[in-house]
Structure formats: C-alpha cells, structure tokens
Amino acid sequence: MASLAEICDLSKLVFLDETGISTDMICRYGRALGGARCRDAAPAGHRQTMTFITGLRADGLTAPGCLDQAMTGESFKEYCARNWSRP
Length: 87
What we know:
- By secondary structure, the protein is α+β, with helices and mostly antiparallel strands.
- The protein is about 20% helix and about 30% strand.
- A hairpin with a 2-residue loop joins strand 2 (about 50-55) and strand 3 (about 60-65).
- The chain has helices at about 5, 75-85; strands spanning about 15-20, 50-55, 60-65.
C-alpha cells in the first residue's frame, strides 16, 4: 500500500487553521455547588470579536488573514477566493 508521501506532493498540501478571540471579558464556564446554576455579573461596554485564519504548509505559514468579526460562511468564501483562487 502506497504512503501519502508517494501519492501526493506534500509541498502542495495546505491545512487551514482558524482561531478567534472575544473582548467581552465574560468567563463562559464556572462551577457551583450541588448542581446549582453559576451566576455572575459582567461589565457592559465595547465588545469585539476578532478571527485569525492562516494556511499551514510543510515549509511555513501562508495567506494569513484577520477579520474584525466572527468567521461566517460568507467571510470564509471571501477569504478562500482572495487567497486560494488561481488568477
């Protein structure tokens, strides 16, 4: 059985990785005794979500991008069209 390296050119293989952060300063997880609901207050104010996406190749990072919003289907299609479509 042929290995992946024999079947395809690994220098052309790209993994897309995406991560996001939020500035709302809210702890999304907590613990309470006896199965009680965990409640806490959060500061009001400016909230922003940022997303970072990049392509990972064997020889390094390629096509990094940063969005000032959460990643949506439309923004992902736009990122792919801008960075991965052939001219």
